[in-house]
Design a protein that fits this description.
Length: 232
Amino acid sequence: MNAGYMETKTDDRPVVLTGHYGSGKSELAVNLALKLSRDAGHIAVVDLDIANPYFRSREAADRLKRHGVRLVGNAYGYDITQDLPALSSSIKQYLGSPDFKCIVDVGGNESGARVLNQFSDVLREKDAKLFIVVNVFRPETDTVSKTISMIKSIEAETGQFISGILNNSNMLRKTKPHHISYGFNMLLEVSKQTGIPIVASCACEDLCGEISGSCGSLMPIEILMRPGWLDM
């Protein structure tokens, strides 16, 4: 995994993943946590997605637990109330802890990201890295201007500045290398206009060997969150 910007063992700063609905934030949060768990000691996924009822990090709770990753989010801790927007009081404890590397999965667009305001003090204190996940094949982020508008709205809503862009441009299991390259090139213009760097392009592991160096650093991922019937 060529993503040292996230993997440094001695770097306990939280990594916050935000973006539009369906951009793949939860998929990347789970993938990143599992990869880090192989090398680092204590990893926690903080599920702050209280806006979207589908494809949240908590759906991978069993898999994360098997790999020793702590899942934090719901205040109740059991399935019957997992959809209630009640956040655990222990979230700040994990975010501020030097013993845990936290991956924060935030709800879609500025409305979902608003929940970050509850934790703005600890996020600033820990110098959290706020990455925006973008799939340019989603209608909300299919142009440079739309993507920049989303970035500005999230920053305005949260008071946090986006520090990096994750190119997660894909067509689900029909994704080809040219889809990822197209997304990277569009996001280069976003980066040029905003000054926000592209930190990685995300791709399924079986595609990484087919992608040229023109897509920047690669973050190999597995599709873990999406049932196969949704691709039919």
